Amino acid sequence: MNKKMIRKLVAAIMALTLTVVMVVTVSYAWMTLSAAPVAEGIQITIGGGNTILIAADYAVVADGETYHYPGHFSSSLNFTKLQQYDYLKSMAPLTPVSTADGIHWFFPEYYDYNDTEVINGTASVGQLKPIEDFRLDDDMQYANVPKAESKGGNYVYLDFWVVSPASDYNLRVSRGDDNGGSFVLELMSPEGDAEGNYTIVSTAGNAAASARIGFLVDDMPVVDDTMRYYQSSLMYSSNYTRLKGNYRDPQDSYWYTDGYRFTIYEPNGDLHPNGTSGTYEVTQPIGWNGNKPQLVDIRSQLTVQLTNAWKNGSGLNEVAFQQIFATWKAGKNLDNMTTAEIKAAFYGEYLQYQVMPYVNKGSFVQMTSALYAYGGTVGAEQLTGLNQAGATDDVIIVQLEKNVPQRIRMFIWLEGQDIDCNGSIGAQDLALSIELAGSNQ
Questions:
Q1: For 425, how many CA atoms within 13 A lie in the half-sphere containing its CB?
Q2: Is residue 93 classed as helix, strand or coil in its secondary structure?
Q3: For the residues 330-358, what does the mean pLDDT come to?
Q4: Strands 53-62 and 65-70
Q5: Which long-range contacts (CB under 8 A, 24 or more apart) does 380-385 make?
Q6: What is the mean pLDDT of residues 401-412?
């Protein structure tokens, strides 16, 4: 990415921070029928720069229809303080799933005793079935499922609005600077010895390696009665005379697929907890060809970031994360606290989930197309030789039109087709931060 591009990226920043609690004993993703990671109490803060503003999504139901419009636009937003996002605080388990378009979601199916293949000896109980037999969710029945209503699968989505008051901008996921940026990391976990002395240690990294963030965007104008309800709301600003973004709500009985774009952000692309780090394995998620599931080439919609890491104190003016924990626990009696309580006190009460200063964020591969030139596997030496940048040049989320609020639907899931979504995942927390940046290129 050239210097002009970087300057414009810095000038138009939108940061999104999520803390996802992943609670699980053992999970083997596609490989077994065991328990899956759980996301609870997602903490989300979103902030904007001087040129991009952010708003929460509000909705009104009238005459059996739901109309969505933006709230007050500002430079920052905390979703956890808004009632309409309360569902993020307690959801059903996040199980591995696969999607190429954000519309068709595929959950694995496994052989049981009644299947012909098991009876005739060509398959065993619990073995993964072919993708053609996977369960299809195309009506959002597995989205944002409450914990009490667990259906054996779940992915997360939320809607928000962005607007560019100054100029048209192309929106991308960005590495950001020291004050913000995009990353996914598993939070270090406190461990105590027989004498009650606690240290904080890294976890395996399986969840961070297979996590995905997707942005579904419809940039068509909203032409129904939404503007009428928006104009009569307390949120209305006369600066905005048009809105963009039409999406299905779970209760809707229709779905339009033309004109939608789905961009996938893959963090930690070269992180392989159960294999060799430093290489990149091209992920082929499962898509729908109109008749059946199939593996999909997503090079035109994929942005890949290299491994993120906790600071270890080796860099200039760098403070090791272990040192922060040691400072916090000095003089504290942790004997009667569980690991979960220690995490809540350290990350929540002490750090307020603000871990950005202690993270070294990976660079983005400048051109996604360059990754595919090597086929399915990009070796460590080849990957190092590729141009890296603060964002991916050849993939954008959407082009924002000046002074036209754009509704964006963001998804969070564990990609079952990722090669790293097949190992043991212990109890952990997942820290996730996203920064969206705009430029006129």
A1: 33
A2: strand
A3: 86
A4: antiparallel
A5: 380/270, 380/276, 380/278, 380/279, 383/270, 383/278, 383/279, 383/280, 383/306, 384/278
A6: 95
